[in-house]
């Protein structure tokens, strides 16, 4: 997955959200390094709650998505 810096802007505290360069029709998630966890949010609703995954959980999720195991 390609990543584009900024994709939704920063937020208070200097967090930089990054958006996939493979965004289609506005359907995309953004990720940010939050220290101990990686934040994942909907790019269309950045103010709504976000997921927080540790790096192993994010790798496992990305692997399942790439393998086509999830109905997305």
Question: Can you walk through the features of this model?
Answer:
The chain has 72 residues and is of the alpha+beta class. A hairpin with an 8-residue loop joins strand 2 (15-20) and strand 3. The longest helix is centred in the last third of the chain and has 12 residues, at 55-66. The chain is built from one helix and five strands. Strands 1-2-3-4-5 form a five-stranded antiparallel sheet. The chain is 17% helix and 39% strand. The chain has one helix at 55-66, and strands at 3-11, 15-20, 29-33, 38-42, 51-53.
Q: Give the ordered list of helices and strands.
A: EEEEEH
CA(first)-CA(last) distance: 15 Å
Cross-sheet strand order for the largest sheet: 1-2-3-4-5
Helix and strand composition category: alpha+beta
Shape: globular
Largest sheet: 5 strands, antiparallel
Strand content: 35-45%
| Total of helices | 1
Mean pLDDT: 81
Estimate the helix proportion, in percent: 10-25%
Poorly predicted runs are 1-10
As a whole number of angstroms, the C-alpha radius of gyration is 12 Å
Number of strands: 5
Write the layout of secondary structure elements.
Layout: E1 3-11, E2 15-20, E3 29-33, E4 38-42, E5 51-53, H1 55-66
Antiparallel strand pairs: 1-2, 2-3, 3-4, 4-5
């Amino acid at each position: 997955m390609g990543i584009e810096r900024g994709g939704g802007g920063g937020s208070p505290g200097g967090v930089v959200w990054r958006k996939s360069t493979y965004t289609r029709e506005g359907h995309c998630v953004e990720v940010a390094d939050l220290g101990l966890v990686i934040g994942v949010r909907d790019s269309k609703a950045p103010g709504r709650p976000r997921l927080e995954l540790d790096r192993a959980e994010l790798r496992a999720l990305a692997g399942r998505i790439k393998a086509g195991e999830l109905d997305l």
